[in-house]
């Protein structure tokens, strides 16, 4: 077999090895993300006297699952880039510089995220609470780090940036029972 054919075959095998490695990295990321979601659910659903009440569980569970999923997929992306011999440090440094520029331009988003983190960590509102914000009174359906969604009695779904939730009334859980 001529040397150029051997080199071509070796190059093809290397490409196949990279494809297999990338597929395995992606499969591993999916498995880790799903297993972590199961672990989060089981941990949060532990006996209530040990961990969280139902309202906090419904609020924190999707946030924790999303956070872990993003971290796992970012790590998988970095592993794939390394496998393809792409310098991830240059990309991360560029992302940091772009992040600073975006941060200066996206002060409202940062305000919303910080306010959301405090709303969640301090337990000021939970999924199922009835809150009044401005002229809107409704049941909290979803709390994310950036926004809170409430559904009014007429069925309207209002999405409110958390940074705007400076003053609001909380009537507690939808059942009206105190916590």
Give an overview of the whole structure.
This protein is elongated. The chain is 59% helix and 16% strand. By secondary structure, the protein is of the alpha+beta class. A hairpin with a 4-residue loop joins strand 3 (147-152) and strand 4. The model has no long low-confidence stretch (mean pLDDT 82). Helix 1 packs antiparallel against helix 2. Strands 4-3-2-1-5 form a five-stranded antiparallel beta sheet. The chain has four helices and five strands. It has two domains: 3-105, Helix Hairpins; 125-173, SH3 type barrels (Roll).
Indicate the topology.
Elements: H1 3-44, H2 54-83, H3 88-105, H4 107-121, E1 129-133, E2 136-143, E3 147-152, E4 157-161, E5 169-173
Antiparallel strand pairs: 1-2, 1-5, 2-3, 3-4
Helix pairs in contact: 1-2
SSE order: HHHHEEEEE
Average pLDDT number? 82
Which stretches of 5+ consecutive residues score pLDDT under 50?
none
Order of strands, widest sheet: 4-3-2-1-5
Strand content: 15-25%
Shape: elongated
- Helix amount: 55-70%
């Amino acid at each position: 077999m001529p040397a150029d054919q051997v080199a071509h075959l070796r190059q093809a095998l290397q490409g196949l090895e990279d494809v297999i490695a990338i597929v395995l990295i992606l499969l591993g990321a999916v498995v880790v993300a799903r297993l972590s979601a199961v672990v989060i659910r089981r941990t949060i659903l532990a006996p209530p006297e040990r961990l969280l009440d139902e309202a906090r569980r419904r609020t924190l569970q999707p946030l924790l699952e999303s956070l872990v999923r993003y971290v796992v997929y970012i790590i998988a992306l970095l592993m794939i880039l390394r496998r393809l011999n792409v310098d991830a440090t240059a990309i991360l440094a560029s992302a940091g510089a772009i992040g600073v520029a975006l941060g200066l331009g996206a002060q409202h988003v940062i305000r919303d995220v910080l306010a959301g983190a405090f709303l969640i960590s301090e337990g000021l509102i939970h999924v199922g609470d009835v809150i009044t914000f401005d002229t809107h009174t409704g049941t909290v359906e979803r709390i994310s780090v950036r926004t809170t969604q409430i559904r009014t009695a007429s069925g309207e779904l209002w999405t409110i940036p958390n940074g705007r939730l400076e003053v609001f009334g909380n009537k507690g859980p939808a059942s009206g029972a105190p916590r």
